[in-house]
Amino acid sequence: MEQKRLSLFKLFLIFTKIGAILLGGGYVILPIMASEFVDKRELVSHDEVIDYFALAQSLPGIIAANMSMFIGYKLRGKWGAITAMLGVTFIPFWCIVLLASVIGSLTENSYVQGALWGVGASVIALIVLTAREMWQKSNRDAFFYVIFVLTLLTLLIFKLSPIQTILLFSIIGVIYKKITEGKK
Amino acid sequence: MIYLHLFWEFFKIGLFSFGGGYATIPFLYHISQVYSWYSLDELTQMVAVASITPGPVGINVATYAGLKSAGILGSALATLAEMLPSLVLVIIVSKLLRKFSDNFYVKSLIQTLKPISCGLLTSVAIGLLKPELNDIKALILIGALLILSWKSKRDPLFYILISAIIGVMLVFIRTLA
Fold first, then answer.
1. What is the pTM of this model?
2. Of A12, A117, B141, B174, most Cβ neighbours within 10 A?
3. With contacts defined as CB-CB under 8 Å, which chain A residues touch B86?
């Protein structure tokens, strides 16, 4: 993919916008990232976004912030990562600092509750959509299906945490690849 | 002195909490017990506020806890301290992946991460859908959004805003009735 160079200021603005619409939990970062960087700007490939999603969960810290930093680094190196970190937290930070006392009384308001109910539903729809898109755009061979099904079962039935699941299947996957392809 | 403690406590959260968001709450509870920066009641309030303001909940709670503990400087410090460990790790991991992109193990790892990522996201979708199964209105809204998106792809913000408006309207209609 051809790499267009983005100024740090522009990167900051994009992440500020992402931070401002990051509602209803961190996972919505994935559809937003895919929309901003893959669909609209074509700066990052769909495959890379998928990789960063797993990598962001393999590291400690907040998933949405980790993912922003990975994309920031990919686009502009370490200053990009720092810019992404500052951008994505800019609006949330001032929201809390300036409005915390006001918002405190709003959490019980029925209209706010209604809006949050709607946001929650839209986040689910967005995540289902992203899962579908991820599935469609992946190169699905037998290896893909096996790891996918095992990951899903481990998370849903054995209730392993995401980090444990990622570690477990990364090791299994790499060993499998080593055995089957390493010989060639 | 409080700034040093604040920095250290939130740095630890950033280093040891996996999964983000609500995973940081046990740490914040611990802080409320050890220091008298905020009470348990205030912590509950903080989580509620952090969940309805934009941004990742785990970071918002840090910002709020910092604010309660030591004002605006405290909130900036707590926020940055919580992200610092992952910033360093993201840079190191990115560098390594770039440097060894031709390495067999790195290539295999990347290939393996894709199905894992799909599995993770599918499990998130299932986990989020489960509690909604009792809420017919939410299911209808989700279904409508999915049908809409299959016809034309739009900005996530569009879906978020339109759903929030529908949520407010439903409350309004209920109060009229």
1. 0.86
2. B141
3. 59-62, 65-66, 69
